[in-house]
Amino acid sequence: MSAIHPIETFLGPVQVAFNVEGEVLYLGFSDHEFRAPLLSKLERLALAPRPDAKALDRLREQLEDYATGGRRAFDIPFRLHGSPFERRVWRLLQDIPFGETRSYGQLAAALGDPNLSRAVGRANGANPVSILIPCHRVIGANGSLTGYAGGLARKERLLRLEGAFRA
């Protein structure tokens, strides 16, 4: 898909896709465990064949600022495409502050049903804009690092960067 553009980041290569309005539709690691299904969803969307240079530069700059500790939140415009449940989970993920974590169970309880932990995990894995929506801030109930499609080493690195992981 020519509308997917690789960029190099502090965590390795990522792929990004924008719509014609300059909003990020996809930001994921090149070796993301669930990359294929996420990319197949993009085929139905109006992707920009080439990203706006300013939008791409802004994304790179904010990722670099985040990597060096100069940024705690992103103001990159993005558009989410997912089920209503996924969108509810992604909204909760955006509310987890920098440097903090939540368990899958805590998110399920916040949704009104503590039995939704696995569904929360699936929605977390379907996050189409990694890092921008901080799905890495979700951990196991016992504090363990679990379930990160970008790999547990990356999850640990992100949480260490934010001061949320102390082994």
Automatic annotation (TrEMBL):
Enzyme class: transferase
GO biological processes: DNA alkylation repair; methylation
Catalytic site: 135 (nucleophile)
EC number: 2.1.1.63
CDD domains (alphabetical): ATase
Location (main, coarse): cytoplasm
A GO CC term assigned to this protein in UniProt: cytoplasm
UniProt-listed HAMAP family: OGT
The protein, known as: Methylated-DNA--protein-cysteine methyltransferase
Organism annotation: Candidatus Geothrix skivensis
Lineage: Bacteria, Pseudomonadati, Acidobacteriota, Holophagae, Holophagales
